[in-house]
Amino acid sequence: MSVRERVDRDEDVCTEASKITCLYYEAMDRKRDKIGHLYVAVDPTLLWNGNNLQGYDDICKFIQQLPQTDHNIQSVDAQRLPTIEETKDLPEGIIMNVAGTVTMGLTSHGFVHNFVLMREDGKFKIKSDRFRYID
Fold it and tell me: Which of 41, 71, 111, 114 is 20 to 30 A from 101 via CA?
């Protein structure tokens, strides 16, 4: 793979990470009923401040019951996972790390949020979701 091809692939990863970040936090803060569309259909996982959930339905129910939020994103980092051609066993994916602050009611917290994104039906969707307050 040429240097230009690697740069182009990295730019594609950044574009996808930017899209999913905007979609996820917009849904989380204002359109919770739409957030399920961002997860893969088969066996997604969520670890939310120690609450371990597996499966699309359980994740959607859990997110719906969380208090109203307002996220302020301070950083996003994304890296491409190896593709099938490179490893022969991993699907195309992205690992994404987000940091920021979240306000829930009158309380604010710093947070880190890690995602593993996998391609499903031509779009990147959340396969693994890990959220933790850092204060």
Answer: 41
